[in-house]
Structure formats: structure tokens, C-alpha cells
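Components:
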Amino acid sequence: MLPEVDTTMTAAARTGRRDRVPPHPDMSEIGLQQVLEALVDPVRRRIVAELYAAGEDLACGTIDLPVSKSTATHHFHVLREAGLIRQHYAGTSRMNALRREEFDARFPGLLRAVVDAHGGDGAAE
Amino acid sequence: MLPEVDTTMTAAARTGRRDRVPPHPDMSEIGLQQVLEALVDPVRRRIVAELYAAGEDLACGTIDLPVSKSTATHHFHVLREAGLIRQHYAGTSRMNALRREEFDARFPGLLRAVVDAHGGDGAAE
DNA sequence: CGCAAGGTTCGACCACTGTCAAACTTCGAT
DNA sequence: ATCGAAGTTTGACAGTGGTCGAACCTTGCG
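Structure:
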């Protein structure tokens, strides 16, 4: 289909993807073990807490983390695999959002409890 | 009081301790990090879940774990240090109980959320 | 086109933690 | 006094996971 390649289009547009979107697991595939392993890391918990507080999509860069870019990528990956966040690209930036309702349906009260405790604890914002 | 030494008494009784009691941290000293590190281990979560279900003190031996005794000791130690359980000796056995109310006051909803999720998840009881 | 910005992938490294066996301690009972 | 049961302590070992730098890949823009 569409044999003529329009070079003015971006690669994403050419392939029919407005936003590249990495694979997200279904909530039913997520286990508690995985979730706790994700939340046990302070950096990841900080990400979750900020997304929770923001209540909307945040670009990666918006959240400043005390680690290198490659490590940050790693953390976002873990959070995504644990069903905690949803990611999609917008230009060169990656947007992140909490999968709040979904997650709460699967693990009622857990996210709230952790974020609350995180705030009252050594949040160091 | 009672100055006459009754040799029929146990050493614990003679020294005025009915039960030896290891040091327990105050809830205010407990951090979320510590708690999550404690709960992230499946064996420890299993212990917590069983104590939660039992609702009363359980001897170490009552809870059968898929690990050696020394490892079990380690796990109970971690749980105690994280403020999750209270321990005391009764004879040669160690009794364990959840510090439920206290813990819930410090981290509202957390224990409940984790135990609930644990049950619905790969509890493998 | 060519370049810079923002992320990703890859390898390597290091600290931490769960695990066990062996030796030791303490209590209860014989 | 002695033995067995129940835990503890210690030391060692292996696997895992967070960390980084370097090289690479896209996208947006001049």
C-alpha cells in the first residue's frame, strides 16, 4: 500500500504510528512479587510518588532523578513491566503516567498506602 | 522480693524474666524503605500472611517454611527489625505475633493491602 | 542534509541479600 | 547430669539488581 514514499513524513508517520508505544502488560499478568520489587527501590518510588501527585502525564525530563539516563531508562522499564506506569512517545520525549485506576482495581489500596507512607517518610522532595 | 532462691525455677524465672525478649524497635524509628525491603521477600510475606490470618501468637515451628532453620531465623529477624512482628520466648520456642495495630497506625492500609494481594496472588497455601 | 537533544542498548562492575552447613546455646525432660 | 529439641551465630557462597559510560538510534529543526 502507498508505494510512493513521502520523505517529508516522519518515520513514525510513515509506519502509521503517531506515537511509538512500548508493550504494556495486562494487569492480570502482574504479580504482587513484581510490584513489590518495583516499589522497593527509592528512585522508582519517587517516580511513582511524583506521578501520583501530578495526576497527569509527565515527560521523563520533568522528573529529575539522582541517576544517569541509562539507569533512569532501566527504572521506567521496571515500572512499566510491573504495570505501574503507562508510557508513550511525544516527539523525542517520553511521556509517563500512572495506571492508577487499573492498578488499584488489581491491588486495592496498595498504591495509596505506599504513596502516603512515602510522603510522610523520607520523601526528600 | 522473694529473696529465697528456688532452684526449681528456671534461669529465666530466677533472673526475673519470664520470657527473654529480644529488642524491638519503636514504630517511630521504622522507615518505609525498611518495611518494603522486609515485605519484598516471598518467605517473609508468607510469614506475615500466616500471622495475619492466625490473629494470634504462633510458634516459629508452627509456620513451615521452605528454608533451613538458620535462614528462617534471619527472616524473623528482618521482620522484627522492620517493626512487623513481635517476638518472645516461651520455653525453647519462639513466639511470633504481628504488630498489627501499631503498624497500621504508622503505615495506614499498607499491611492490609499487601496481605490481601498476597492471598489473591501466588499464595500457594 | 546534518546536527543536537532525548532515550535506549550493551557490558561490566559492585554491593547486597538470601541461602546453607556447622558449631554453639538454652531450655525442658528423662 | 545428660540428652534432645528449638533457635542462634558465624562464615562462606552464589545470584540478583542498581549503577555507570560508551556507542547507538530517533526525532525535530535549522
